[in-house]
Amino acid sequence: MDKKSKRLVLKRTPMRKRKPRERVKSFYEVALGYTEKEAVKEANRCLECKRPPCVKGCPVEINIPGFIKRIKEGEFLESAKILKENNPLPAVCGRVCPQEDQCEKSCVLARKGAPVAIGRLERFSADYEAKKEKRDSLVSSSTGLSSTKGKVAVIGSGPASLVCASELAKKGYSVSIFESLHIPGGVLVYGIPEFRLPKDIVRREISYIRSLGVKVVTNFFAGRTQTIGELMNEDGYEAVFVGTGAGLPRFMHIPGENLLGIYSANEFLTRMNLMKAYKFPDYDTPVKVGEKVGVIGGGNVAMDSARVALRAGAKKVSILYRRTKNEMPARIEEIENAEEEGIEFVFLVAPVEYIGDENGWLRQAKLIRMRLGEVDSSGRRRPIPIKDSEFKIPLDTVVVAIGQSPSPLIAKRTPGLKVDPRRGTIMVNEKTGATTKVGVFAGGDVTTGAATVILAAGAGKAAAKDIDYYLNNKDKKGIWKELMEKR
Ligand code: FAD
Ligand code: SF4
């Protein structure tokens, strides 16, 4: 047996979680993270590959074997430093990234047994650094980067914008983030619930980005408070990055969808997460959650909505999904968590009508059974309704989580900025983020439609590189065409 095979440990170190019965009564974080001992044990599984395929699977190209090696050596702070070289949001990504489809999928150990738990180790290092800072009362505000280059405006404050802004600040630009809500963070604060991603974690990573010199302006609705044109022509911003996400909910447009008790996931989660509706009357944004809740959809948003409804007092929560478990886009870990908590999964069904009482409140949903046909453009088998298979179930609350699209406001108020007419997404060169308007870049969900945190972060990082290139070559003839056509 060679040296490497001797070290092969095929099973990954499990991570502790709160017990289902305990966790459904509160919004405390479910996953508890690794202890130092567990982290070192898991890190020791990494083979430190010379040409590590895991790094290729990471959209922000974290030095994965590098940060894991530091954990093996007990150099936890050094490990966090390596993470932050490529990603200012390690505690966030360690918690919510679909590693099973990215770095961990590419890990060589995935073919032999279980991949190294890269996400859990990322979370460990970032949390270790946070705890150490608290203990030593160190505030990460001493990076002291000075801005010697031009002014860049970043619209929105989700992961795409946060990463773009921090990369530009590191390169010496004066960067201002303009966010329409009263709190920065995008979906990380208003969508993903506290029990999966505590707000303190997001706040801390944003304060690190602020410490790089990035200014954050909240309650600024670009397109309304000021247009992009005004920011560029009147306020002297030389380039703009648009990372406004995909926050416009989709509905099915079926009879009864306007009944009381039917919410878009966006409204439901924003009110619960950001405005603490679950603490009514201490907070003044009530959301009435009934006893029988149906959640339409099969992605992360549907899982979060269902688990939030349970914690808000629902007696029975059912996920109603038109395909089967195999096609569900939600993270496997979150499906398992929802199952453990007692969420019911009803597959191969779709609502066709909602039925209310005389006061306009939802009472029943009429569902139709589906079967799976050929593979469609999403790469999954197409659901086909089965004729005359309708049936009714009692429901008093429904949360519709079937996808979101970008808001059309910015594109409407920015002449020359083209959007895809079918999907409403801003059209960009995928490599550079250059839009059809000179000086304006975009990335994240606003260009792809609803996707993932790390893809948004990757797009923000790529755009920052090309914003820098553009601002250094502004006078070069054909520079914008070059950025728009780059392959
Ligand atoms: P966003 O995070 O949407 O941020 C956009 C920001 O722009 C928002 O703060 C918005 O208020 C602001 N904005 C919009 N319009 C304007 C304007 N005109 N002016 C100023 N500001 C504006 N991904 C994962 O990888 N893992 C998960 O587990 C996961 N779970 C999810 C759960 C939920 C409930 C949701 C909704 C999404 C989830 N996602 C998950 C997807 C992920 O959160 C998104 O793909 C990611 O946040 C997109 O980042 P972004 O920066 O493009 O946009
Ligand atoms: Fe370690 Fe897996 Fe990456 Fe190899 S592929 S360096 S084993 S994490």
CATH-defined architecture of the largest domain: 3-Layer(bba) Sandwich
Q: Biggest β-sheet: count, sense, barrel?
A: 5 strands, parallel
Q: Give the number of domains.
A: 3
Provide the residue-averaged pLDDT. Answer: 92
Report how far apart the termini are: 45 Å
Q: What ligand molecules are bound, each kind once? A: flavin-adenine dinucleotide, iron/sulfur cluster
Report the strand count: 18
Annotate the secondary structure layout:
Blueprint: H1 3-7, E1 16-17, H2 20-23, E2 31-33, H3 36-43, H4 53-56, H5 64-72, H6 76-86, H7 90-96, H8 103-106, H9 109-112, H10 118-135, E3 151-155, H11 159-170, E4 174-178, H12 187-190, H13 199-211, E5 215-217, H14 228-233, E6 239-242, E7 248-249, E8 262-264, H15 265-273, E9 292-296, H16 300-311, E10 316-321, H17 332-340, E11 344-347, E12 349-356, E13 362-375, E14 381-385, E15 391-394, E16 397-400, E17 404-405, H18 409-412, E18 440-442, H19 445-448, H20 453-472, H21 479-485
Parallel strand pairs: 3-4, 3-6, 4-5, 6-18, 8-16, 9-10, 9-16, 10-11
Antiparallel strand pairs: 1-2, 7-17, 12-13, 13-14, 13-15
Helix pairs in contact: 3-5, 3-10, 5-6, 5-10, 6-10, 7-10, 11-20, 15-16
The structure holds flavin-adenine dinucleotide and iron/sulfur cluster.
The site of iron/sulfur cluster (SF4) has 14 residues, from helix 4 and helix 5.
